Structure formats: structure tokens, C-alpha cells
């Protein structure tokens, strides 16, 4: 484990420069009113800047990154949103048509303009981006009134709307809140506190020097972990890297969030020089937010994330240990990590079991990509050089018929009477 997650940073000479995901400079060289968005929809290449049922082959492909043209089809399949939408026809339309709770509607309205303000979808208050975000968040407060609205749901729903229609984005949000991260977005956030304790235990075991430094300067996990886990790193990492994290997270579950967090800790505080430069709480928190952008590019960063020696079994064992240490008199409901499903494979099996119990035969999700059509050979033009149109017509009719010639009008030619 120590070798898979060492405390020394990768030398900068070994970092790969994948500038293809950072946007084109030629798109941003024009004057302000005419600037174009990059391939992720951000104005001014903000996507690369730091903002304030998985079978083995599917798992491998998701780790390599889902193509942008297929995310709208893969994400609902991976998280089970497609089955939820099929089993609840018309539910989203009823929720959108219903009046929302005034308390939540006011809070949601204040947060709309804060979600990716430099993205072309969310620039205008009357645009389809902000209006779709309002509908999705309002629908969730009506779908789960006991949970209501959490501000961290805003950026999560916004990323979903960048790739999906509002109804599919709503069901994906439901699956993230109830299947991947249950207890995260409720009024007590009991699962966030539990995962914070689990993260510190994993940090003590895998990065003991970093853990000791955080204890010495008084940096607790609740000072940085909620922003990472609740928002699924949408506010902490470059947007291309966020998409790659989401591809893996929807495939493998919450353990990906812990792997990403441990990787960020190693990049920010992995060496003795980095820890010496952070003698206090503010300097340490600043170091976590000031990791060089070159080390956060998707290919380089995700290769380090996947090398973290943290399996689902290790995570579940640590969760059981932390649950046993929780005081019985703690306020709020007790965390229920057993309701969390570990990725697409577990979700698919759960939906299959529910379908069998309901008497319906579950469908196996599949994505069919039509191959491009073969180009047709160009049509050949007839060889008419040196031939008259009258000659072609006579040859097409065949040899002349024996007998009396046909009578024509006096001064009218054959072509005039024919056409």
C-alpha cells in the first residue's frame, strides 16, 4: 500500500502535458463580446482553471474516460436513472407542474447564478440552463420533501444538465443522492461526518506523515472534505478532470471519492518541503487549493488516482470500524452506509432483483453505436462526346420500322413534336 500511495510527489518532468483539454487559444483571442466557448461550454477556457453495472471491460473503459458524445447515454445507464425514469413515467412532469415550497424556492433562486457563471448555459437568468436547473432542484424538493434542498446539489445538477435533458438529469440526481451518497444531502448530513472519520483513518494508515501534520496544525476533515465530496469535486478541480472523476465514480462508487481525496493530499502535502512551508492552519488549507494545474490534468491525475491501493473491501472494513466507535448518544439519525451501493454493477443487480420480484423481466442495458455508412461510388457520366442528342434518341428507339413514314406537321421538326 505504501508503494501504491507514497508520500513523494511525482517529478514535474514526468508529468504529461495534455493541452487538448485546456481549450484553444484561437477561440479566446477575440474581443470580449465575441469570445467563444471551449469544447466544454466555458467562456474564457474556465474549464481548465481552478474554480473558487460495471463488468470488468466497462470498468476499464470508464477509467479511460467516456467520450463526450456518449456521456449522455452512458451516465443514465451506469447510475440506473434510465430504469427509474422508465418505471415512473410522468412523475417528473407532475413535479415540475406542481408549485414548490416557498422556503426552498427562495433559496434555490438565490443560488442559480452561482452555478458555473462562466458557462454559456448559465449566463442568462432567463436562459434554458438556469431555468432547467430551477426545475430539477424544485422537483427534487417535492420528490423528497423530508430532505429538501442542499446547496451542494446545485453544482451537481448543473453538471448533469450540461450533458442531459432535465428529466434524465433529475433521475441521475436522485440516484446520486439516494444510492451513491445516501445521507449526504439531508438536513443532518450524518453520512458526511462518518466519511470524514473514515477518510482520516485511511489517511493515518496510508499517509501517516500528512495525517500527523494535519493534526499538528489543527486542520480537521470537515474544513475541506464537504466541499470535495458533497460537490463531487466540481468546485475544486479543472472541469476535464471532474468529468473523468464522474465517469469512474458512476462506475465504481464512493471509493473513487476517497481515492481522489488521498491523491490530492499527497500532491499538496506529500513532501517534507511542502509540509514545512505550511506551518499553520491557513497555509495548509491554502496548499490544498493551490496544487499546480499541470499536476491536475486528467490523464496524469487519474493515473495516480487509480494507483491508490484502496479497494471496496478495505473501505467497508474501515466504515464498520468507525461505526462501532460512534457514540450512541450522538444527535441526529445514525448513518446507514449499508444503503450505499458500490457502483454500477451493484445498482444493476439491485434493479434486476427488484424487477424479478415485481414480475417483470429486466432489460440488459446496452449502447449500440452505429458504424458510419460506406460512401457510395460516384455516378459515372455517360459518354456523349461527339454524339448528337437526336442520334442518342434514335439509337435508343432501335432500328427504324419498315413501312410508310409517319406524317408530321408541315414545318414542325421531330423534336418539336416529341417534346
UniProtKB/TrEMBL annotation:
Compositional bias (Polar residues): 410-419
Gene: Tbc1d10c
Species classification: Eukaryota, Metazoa, Chordata, Craniata, Vertebrata
Source superkingdom: Eukaryota
Gene Ontology molecular function: GTPase activator activity; small GTPase binding
Protein name: TBC1 domain family, member 10c
Region (Disordered): 1-33, 355-419
UniProt feature, compositional bias: Low complexity: 11-33
PANTHER family named in the record: RAB GTPASE-ACTIVATING PROTEIN 1-LIKE (PTHR47219), TBC1 DOMAIN FAMILY MEMBER 10A (PTHR47219:SF4)
Record domain Rab-GAP TBC: where: 65-253
Compositional bias segments (type: Basic residues): 378-388
SMART domains hit by this protein: TBC
Amino acid at each position: 500500500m505504501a508503494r501504491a500511495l507514497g508520500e513523494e510527489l511525482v517529478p514535474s518532468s514526468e508529468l504529461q502535458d495534455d493541452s487538448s483539454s485546456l481549450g484553444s487559444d484561437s477561440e479566446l483571442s477575440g474581443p470580449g463580446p465575441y469570445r467563444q466557448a471551449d469544447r466544454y461550454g466555458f467562456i474564457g477556457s474556465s474549464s481548465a482553471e481552478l474554480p473558487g453495472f460495471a463488468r470488468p471491460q466497462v470498468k476499464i473503459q470508464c477509467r479511460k474516460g467516456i467520450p463526450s458524445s456518449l456521456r449522455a447515454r452512458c451516465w443514465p445507464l451506469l447510475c440506473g436513472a434510465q430504469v427509474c425514469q422508465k418505471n415512473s413515467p410522468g412523475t417528473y412532469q407532475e413535479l415540475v407542474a406542481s408549485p414548490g415550497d416557498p422556503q426552498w424556492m427562495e433559496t434555490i433562486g438565490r443560488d442559480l447564478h452561482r452555478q458555473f457563471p462562466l458557462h454559456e448555459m448559465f449566463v442568462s437568468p432567463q436562459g434554458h440552463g438556469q431555468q432547467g436547473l430551477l426545475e430539477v432542484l424544485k422537483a427534487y424538493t417535492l420528490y423528497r420533501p423530508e430532505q429538501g434542498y442542499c446547496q451542494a446539489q446545485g453544482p451537481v445538477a448543473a453538471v448533469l444538465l450540461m450533458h442531459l435533458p432535465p428529466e434524465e438529469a433529475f433521475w441521475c440526481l436522485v440516484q446520486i443522492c439516494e444510492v451513491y451518497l445516501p445521507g449526504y444531502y439531508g438536513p443532518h448530513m450524518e453520512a458526511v461526518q462518518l466519511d470524514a472519520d473514515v477518510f482520516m483513518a485511511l489517511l493515518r494508515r496510508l499517509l501517516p506523515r500528512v495525517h500527523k501534520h494535519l493534526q499538528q496544525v489543527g486542520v480537521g476533515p470537515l474544513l475541506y472534505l464537504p466541499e470535495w465530496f458533497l460537490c463531487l469535486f466540481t468546485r475544486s478541480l479543472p472541469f476535464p478532470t471532474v468529468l473523468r472523476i464522474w465517469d469512474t465514480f458512476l462506475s465504481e462508487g464512493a471509493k473513487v471519492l476517497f481515492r481522489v481525496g488521498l491523491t490530492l493530499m499527497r500532491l499538496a502535502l506529500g513532501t517534507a518541503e511542502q509540509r514545512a512551508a505550511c506551518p499553520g492552519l491557513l497555509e495548509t488549507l491554502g496548499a490544498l487549493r493551490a496544487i499546480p494545474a499541470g499536476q491536475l490534468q486528467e490523464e496524469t491525475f487519474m493515473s495516480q488516482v487509480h494507483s491508490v491501493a484502496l479497494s471496496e473491501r478495505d473501505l467497508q472494513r474501515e466504515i464498520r470500524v468507525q461505526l462501532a466507535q460512534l457514540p450512541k448518544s450522538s444527535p441526529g439519525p445514525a448513518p446507514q452506509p449499508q444503503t450505499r451501493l458500490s457502483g454500477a454493477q451493484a445498482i444493476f443487480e439491485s434493479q434486476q432483483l427488484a424487477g424479478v420480484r415485481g414480475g417483470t423481466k429486466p432489460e440488459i442495458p446496452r449502447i449500440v453505436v452505429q458504424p458510419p455508412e460506406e460512401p457510395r461510388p460516384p455516378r459515372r457520366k455517360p459518354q456523349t462526346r461527339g454524339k448528337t442528342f437526336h442520334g442518342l434518341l434514335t439509337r435508343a428507339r432501335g432500328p427504324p420500322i419498315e413501312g410508310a413514314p409517319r406524317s408530321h406537321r408541315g414545318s414542325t421538326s421531330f423534336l418539336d413534336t416529341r417534346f
